[in-house]
Amino acid sequence: MSDRIRQETDDGVAWVRMCRPDVRNAFDERMIAELTACFSALTGADGVRAVVLSGEGKSFCAGADLAWMQKMVRYSFDENLADARALSLMLRSIADCPKPVIARVHGAAFGGGVGLVAACDLACALKRATFCLSEVKLGIAPAVIAPFLIEKISMSAARRYALTAERFDAAEARRIGLVHDVAATEQAMDAAIKEHIERFMRAGPQALAATKSILTEASRFSRDAALERMAEHIARLRASDEGQEGLKAFLEKRSARWIASRVDDRGG
Length: 268
Prior knowledge:
- With 268 residues, the chain is of the alpha/beta class.
- The chain folds into two domains: 5-200, 2-enoyl-CoA Hydratase, Chain A, domain 1 (Alpha-Beta Complex); 203-265, Lyase 2-enoyl-coa Hydratase, Chain  A, domain 2 (Orthogonal Bundle).
- 51% of the residues lie in helices and 14% in strands.
- The chain is built from twelve helices and nine strands.
- A hairpin with a 2-residue loop joins strand 1 (5-10) and strand 2.
- Helix 1 packs parallel to helix 3 (77-95) and helix 9 (205-218) packs antiparallel against helix 10.
- It is globular and about 60 Å long.
- The model has no long low-confidence stretch (mean pLDDT 90).
């Protein structure tokens, strides 16, 4: 893949790892482009049922790389706009990936790193992990990550942590909805991730993709408009091959084909 990220696929799970421990997995142009390409490819990967995003070293992601930031000082407005659009595209490629994406937050997530966590569907964090929306200290704002952040946490919490730039711990991240599980050890965190993956594996792959899309769509329309669109979605899903198989399997008290085929592939 590259020296910035690595991807391995095992038993239907894509493990995507940021590999810049010397700079705490901070973003630069190449890392942004490579993460975008990686998640864009995973969108159409039939053999992948779930994705786990993690980082090497002590931190999950420290946000913007210092060398990259130094170049930004000399950027024109148009260059900064292109740069921000690239970051936005990367976050969208994660959020819009039709596979469930789990963030494995073992250490600090600052600035854009918080945006990465917010773009994932679920986040499991170590108790010692720390979080910070640090942009205002640099005279800027968490603008690109704001839409993803507001989908996860309340406006009240967003205002506090984006305006104060104070650090908060994993317990607080869970309280405000940024993180879903907090574990005392890496073993416990990985066990929680494994449990989530097993739940995903028991769900219909197309149903998971449709659910992600529906939840995003429903949040962006008025209630009346959303209700009509949701009625159309469920009608299509019920009539689909996967929907028909899932309903028949439930009524016939048997495993759906996507579960049975996974058991067969694993030899048991």
